[in-house]
Amino acid sequence: MMPRAKLKARKVEAAEALVGARPLPESNVWMRRAREAAHARVLDMGLPTKRDEYWRFTDPRRLTAAEAEAGKLHDTQGEAPVFDAFDRLKIVFTNGVFDAEASDALEMDGVEIAPLAEAAAADLHWARDIYGVLEQRGQNPVERPLASLNTAYAREGMFIRVTGNPERPISLIYNRSAEDGDAIVHHVIRVEAGAEVTILENGPVAARFNQVMEADIAEGATLHHIRAQGRDHERAGTAHLFARLGAEAQLKSFTLTANGSLIRNEAVIWLDGADGSAHIAGATVGDGAFHHDDTVFINHAAPRCESRQVFKKVLRHGAVGVFQGKILVDQVAQLTDGYQISQALLLDEDAQFLAKPELEIYADDVQCSHGSTSGEIDKSQLFYLRTRGVAEDEAKLLLVLAFLAEALEEIADQGFADDLRDRLEAWLKRRG
Amino acid sequence: MAALDDVQLRDGVDRETVETVQSMADSYKHGWETDIEMEFAPKGLNEDIVRLISEKNNEPEWLLQWRLDAYRRWLTMESPDWAMLDIPMIDYQEQYYYAKPKSMVEKPKSLDEVDPKLLETYEKLGIPLKEQMVLAGVEGADEGRKVAVDAVFDSVSVGTTFKKELAEAGVIFCSISEAVQEHPELVKKYLGSVVPQNDNYFAALNSAVFSDGSFVYIPAGVRCPMELSTYFRINAENTGQFERTLIVAEKGSYVSYLEGCTAPKRDENQLHAAVVEIVVLEDAEVKYSTVQNWFPGDENGKGGIYNFVTKRADCREARAKCMWTQVETGSAITWKYPSCILRGDDSQGEFYSIAIANNWQQADTGTKMVHLGKNTRSRIVSKGISAGQAQNTYRGLVSMHPKAKDSRNYTQCDSLLIGDKCGAHTVPYIEVKNSSSRVEHEATTSKVDDDQLFYCRQRGMDEEEAVALVVNGFCKEVLQELPMEFAMEAQALVAISLEGSVG
Known about the structure:
The structure holds two protein chains of two kinds. By secondary structure, chain A is α/β, with parallel strands linked by helices. Chain A has ten helices and 20 strands. Chain A has helices at about 5-20, 30-45, 60-65, 115-120, 125-130, 135, 145-155, 380-385, 390-410, 415-430; strands spanning about 90-95, 95-100, 105-110, 110-115, 160, 170-175, 180-190, 195-200, 210-215, 220-230, 235-245, 250-260, 260-270, 275-285, 290-300, 305-315, 320-330, 335-345, 350-360, 365-375. In chain A, helix 1 (about 5-20) runs antiparallel to helix 2 and helix 2 (about 30-45) packs antiparallel against helix 7 (about 145-155). Chain B has 13 helices and 24 strands. Chain B is globular. In chain B, about 55% of the residues are buried. Chains A and B meet through strand 19 and strand 20 of A and strand 22, strand 23 and strand 24 of B.
């Protein structure tokens, strides 16, 4: 076993080698400060390694290497992208760079939208309290150096301030045309008191991506976040969602992941005001060289809040699914209702499910529970369907979809939920 | 106990539960000290001390080398920091690593020669050490089942009872120092085969300086005629206790083993770093029960035992079975994960635990079930109760290796908090590397199974009755895993109604 001091020194050396001399992007005073502080954090924490407790199930080497591994582009064979049928305000990034021409005009009632480059040159006072601020808060008690790296170097992203109830969802579309290269994207979202918005994300982004979304959800505001990570298989990436909720605020975040050889999604949520509600859910289907990691940390810091984590993974042919979830209930957070479920369906002998569902509770009047299960398709359920004349393949498909349904139910809008369900069904059928 | 006095009762937590927890914290009834002349090795830890311990025990050269090897490895290791424990810096040079009652310097030939003060000590603890009493025919009088006891006082074993009867059955039950003399081939074969010297920091320390402990060998096909018990007591000041227990259950054998521990009340913290190794061979079964009641420190968190223990069973062959039952009420800090390596096909591991942490106690305890063989089974039931300013963590690992086809695990952890200054935490690790195995983990604050409730309701019970019945049944199920001999201590725990965690 490597002594702790030596391990730490190595991590710091690695960070120094990677970004010690890399210049920070040009920005105005406040953003420059945020970047410098984040840069210092990276050098102080060092880069993550598999020896870190928080990375015990996922090897971060591909995410921390100097160069992104190149990977083939996926042939979509004419299949329409997800959410295509819905009326949305489209914001397109190509290889991680904002593509104004391909995007709609960044105008809609009840919302102000500005690309990061523009925000970095202006003085967006509302963003100053969020950019790098939530990310920094998320470094304790667990270090997340890749998110600090993002704060320091992101040149792309959207700054979205929601003041009303915009009529269309805001759709962030990440197209990819290059086989190699990195994308570092950082979004800042402020949902003002009582406002409500839906933010969609989809597309393969780049050969390697590092995404951060910082969301500040004010009193009584609601953020719906629906993300689809599909298509290109040969890519690696990490996405962090940092969200702070005021009193009676609501967050619903759902992620569908299909494909991607190494994906780590982290969510760090603070329920800072009483009666808030945060639901984080995910449905994952993995086949072959697929390593997918959901790492969630929910902080209950105020009374009477509710949180749910619902993660379902269907894995086969050596695919690996990881779930690390934590509910932390502060002493003041009485009457907390915390629920967490993580389940894996392993379709063949080579698949793996690695989980660490944690509870850390300092308040006595709470309802907290977690469950985690792993196994193959229930033979008696399969038998039941077969006796009713359902063909074996069809029966299996039905059971897998039923298994994933609990996660999809976390999407408030039935239209989006149906679209994603259809995607999952098509994926399962394609993979036979 | 001021902290608990102003506790507001929550729904579902009854006054009795709170009071029982209170009463247990208020008085540590084993806190007295025996005034007995001791022989100490010099304070501090170095190779000379390791050599001295080995010499005092008249050990063969291989064992001395084994100890020195462990000591050198320990020097390169770091104290683990991953548990949810706040462990003050321990000065390993400020401890005595060897303490022995003076009257034991010349080993007594029979219990009659043992210092009467020592025997008094054990009598006070409620252990009938004198086998004569039982052998003299009072057996029927006290209706008790026979239990062979090995008592360890600070660093040395002071006496083992029922030797004759055990020998007739072929069972070897003696102190490990004796085993080194009389059965060196067995000790050499199995010592360190389950918990290697460098397994972890505290196991390495124990391997270097262990002074005594118990050795059990059950020959093939023998069902041990009585329960075996070791009683550990730390008496001397500033003394660490490092006992080593080795149990070998040969093919088709069975043994039930009990362990109990106490220590005097002192203001200083004392270190206890034990290792228990169990080897279970084909079709054999070992039941290991512990009531851990080391001094937990006073209500201000002063004093108490640091209990850093490595316990592991290796179910080495087909259909081997090991069952750990523990009731953890003592120690200022507990760091303990009794584990099962399920190597043999169809082998089984079970872990039942009740952990109570009160005042300033900290407990980080749980189990590891490592499934290597086909069709292996494991079951984990853990109940944690926190009160005062205590922190109580369940930490567990369930690992299904690729070859462990068709294996099964069921884990249930429940926590109950009394008062809002304590903490209850659950840190399970689940690693599933094959699809035919089923793993289920559940941790909740409401511990009543809906199906069972529904069943009871269907038969006309009202909800409270149904809950009471289910909880009662469940509680019994765990406590029943404890052998009768622990009834006294378990009784105090039965009183702690688990009902409070429902609702």
